[in-house]
Amino acid sequence: MYWALLTQGVSRWRRKIWHAAVMRSGMLTFLVLLFVLGGLTFGWREHRLGQFAQLKKELNSRPVRDVTARPGGQDVVQLQRSQIAGGNGPEFLSATLLPGRGMNLLQITAYLPQRGEVNLLASPPLQEAAKILSGTGADANGAKSLSMGAAVEMPWAGRISGVSTPDGRNLSTIWHGNRFILPTDAKDSDGVAGVVAAGGLLLKQPSDSVNTNVMPDGGEAQATYRPGNFDGHWPSQTEVTTTVALSGKSIMMKIVARNTGNSAEPMGIGWHPRFAVLGGHRAQMMLRLPEGLRVEVKDRRSGELSGNLLPVDKTEYDFTGRIGAQLGALNLDDSFVHLRTSLLESGPMAELRDPENDYGLRITAMTSNIKAIRVYAPLDGSYISIEPQTNYDDPFGHQWPRDEDTGMVVLQPGQSMQWQVRLQIFSLSSTDSGIVREP
Questions:
Q1: What ranges do the domains of the chain cover?
Q2: 303 near 333, Cβ under 8 Å?
Q3: Alpha-carbon distance 234 to 178, whole Å?
Q4: How far apart are CA 165 and CA 382, in angstroms?
Q5: Higher-pLDDT residue of 69, 37
Q6: Of 3.90.740.10, 2.70.98.10, 3.60.21.10, 2.60.40.10, which CATH number belongs to 65-433?
Q7: Residue-wise pLDDT tens digits, 364-380
Q8: Distance between CA 390 and CA 419 in Å, rounded?
Q9: How far is CA 14 from the centre of its chain?
């Protein structure tokens, strides 16, 4: 009992001392203010050291997988980065990839000083794209991938012509004595009326694996595909690895195709980006192409080629000047081959310039097997497509001279080929518009 009384007395004594020393004297308020000021000082110090900015940048640059829309039944991968603080030039901000649809690059966003954040590719919103890319009906063989974003085309790029099969749903064509039966429901951008197969066979292929990595100024995604013989349409077994890396000023895209079968196979690789005309004023857009020859089109309606290669000098198709030439009223659906590399360039280079919005896009072929650039710029369209391809249009066609290399690489069992391009963004009014060499 005495011990309990003593304990209660000590407690009352401590409370009186605390009340007198802290509460009445204002010491509690002082301690709280001291704690707050200490926290603010630490936060400002870390900010000055760049810790918060670095953390924000790392969080924003982490690849994000969107589970709300899954074209091809697989998660969307979005590479992201933060705009450079105080930057006054155009920058890439994100890249949205569809591993479930052959690694179609559905959208690229960028910051433009005159417009803010914009979409650079002519594509519907993700949710709408997921509904269109259903894999059924008109999209049974992936045709709808050619109507949005930037689809990967292989084992050939562009068109292949042939003879219609009795059911009218496929065509047959011959390569080295081997007959191929190819689906014809996948029309290309122009929706040509002839008997053609377009865009390759990877358009709706789901990936077998996907990996993502954070990079100092963006991110990287890699998808692997094992389509085998493409449902019996191709003569051997194929494995495809596609890698896309995003940074502020460039997007690197690399595709490696390997023959994993027991027989030889032809292989062509291309890319089908549809760059948006942001202001809707197509005629003022500037196109620059490397020096080369234009493939003559015999029939614009069907896309049939004559096999003749024509010079472009002093013609309406001459876009080889230092800054190219305006598209004006020229309706383009043409391929350019025998491409030449200018001094200081890493490879043949094409540019699309938008004077109205003070920015440009530059595509550089980083591998020597890219032998053709196809340009599709419909007169009434809201996009312009610049397509770097290893093969010519209709590479198996009989119209080509026997000594003309139409770009289809023959892969023997175990062999592989690589296709690589670099997409850059630059300002037209600053020194950014100069040639940027690969570090």
A1: 2-49, 65-433
A2: yes
A3: 10
A4: 35
A5: 69
A6: 2.70.98.10
A7: 999 999 999 999 999 98
A8: 8
A9: 71
Write the burial class of residue 422 (CB in 10 Å: 0-12 exposed, 13-18 middle, 19+ buried). Answer: buried
Nearest to 132 by CA among 151, 159, 114, 116: 151
The CA-CA-CA angle for residues 289, 291, 295, to 5°, reads: 85
Contact 239, 225 (CB under 8 A): yes
**Rounded Cα–Cα distance for residues 127 and 68 (Å):** 8
Block residue for tokens 């407690």: 11
On the question of pLDDT at 323 being above 50, the answer is yes
Q: Which two tokens stand for residue 98?
A: 């569809």
Mean pLDDT of 128-143: 95
Q: What angle do CA 174, 389, 254 make, to 5 degrees?
A: 120
Interhelix angle 51-61/27-48, rounded to 10 degrees, is: 60
The DSSP result for 354-412, as a single string, is EGGGTEEEEEEE-STT--EEEEEE-TT-SEEEEEEESS-SSTT-TTS-TT-----EEEP
**Model pTM score:** 0.83
**Pairing assessment for the beta strands 416-426 and 359-365 based on DSSP bridges:** antiparallel
Query: Is residue 339 over pLDDT 90?
Result: yes
Sequence-separated (6 or more) residues with CB below 8 Å from residue 155: 200, 201, 202, 230, 234, 238, 257, 265, 266, 267, 268, 269
